[in-house]
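ugh ok fine here u go
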Amino acid sequence: MQSLIKDINLAAEGRKKIDWVSNFMPTLNTLGDRFEAEQTFKGQTIVVSVHLEAKTAYLATVLKRGGADVIVTGSNPLSTQDDVAAGLVDMGLTVYAWYDCTEEEYFNFLNKALDHKPHIIIDDGGDLVNLLHTTRQDAKERLLGGSEETTTGVHRLYALENAKQLTFPMIAVNDSYCKYLFDNRYGTGQSVWDGIMRTTNLTVTGKNVVVAGYGWCGKGVAMRAKGLGAHVYVTEVDPIKAIEAVFDGFKVLPMIEAAKVGDIFCTVTGCKDVIVKEHYEVMKDKAILCNAGHFDCEVNVADLTELAVSHERVRQNIEGYTMADGRKLYVLAEGRLVNLAAGDGHPAEIMDLSFAMQALAAEHILHNGKDMEPKVYVLPHELDAEIAKLKLNSMGYDLDSLTQDQIDYLTKVN
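structure:
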């Protein structure tokens, strides 16, 4: 089937981006060498629906080296990079995606990918899984299972499992140590501020930053904001996470109070309606709002549009809303993931860990999927440890090892 992309003439620039990140993903390189030698995925069709930028593209090429027929589509209308999509097509992969697609086009791309009847899926946010349980059950005829990249998608998987509606095994890669401890904390922490700063060209230091949600992503966003010199406020619904934020040195407030002091707001909750009408009504002039959760429902843009007397695009990826009293509020990237819709996403060295886990998850499903119950799984700890050790070795670090006496001491029955 023919790819659907914006412009194949962008391929040269896209390949340069893919080549660049490949230099900084040694763990994935090591797995790619093994997959190629063993032809691990020969005869398998793998559909990848992850934010389509250079690191995702490189993961797809690693799977292709292992013999797979790899079909790639995006997982968000604003995160696809057209040159990277073209670069993948130029490298022999099938791609259905382009930047700023409509909702209709977005789901058409997902359906085109599922037309290939995959053996394995790699999902980000749960839209592929949702289609396979609703309108595209026909595409499951060869499906062994798959994996999920992000917190929101994992929540959707557990909802299916709890309702006893999940029909194939899925690995929650997001819940593996080498994913959430590094990707969610250090990756999101850096890439969110990269997206905000390159989009606004404003300082962070001295500003009041409000971070909604203190999960692993929220911790990363707050930590990096503090490092950039901001005064950081956290909003939470979980008392344990809230006290952790306090002990980490941050001020915890309800959003209605934080809304009065914030200069920059970033939602990282995975929930909806985190910032709504009552908050807009008390915000300072020129407050900036953005979201780093998977779906564009955390910052309620509809409420803001209803309140505003006018709005306009004031700069690429910035919409300005003028209130009746003359205040202006700014929304970045239409409330979609600011780090991907207005940036390049997580650093390559971070995604090296996450996508190595995805590659191992695909291999695990290949070898075990037929015998796995339709449940949500986490990869065995041994695979986490293997990835961490490969990464350490690539960075020039080594570890101690336990002596037999130490092993006996730790394992003996007292």
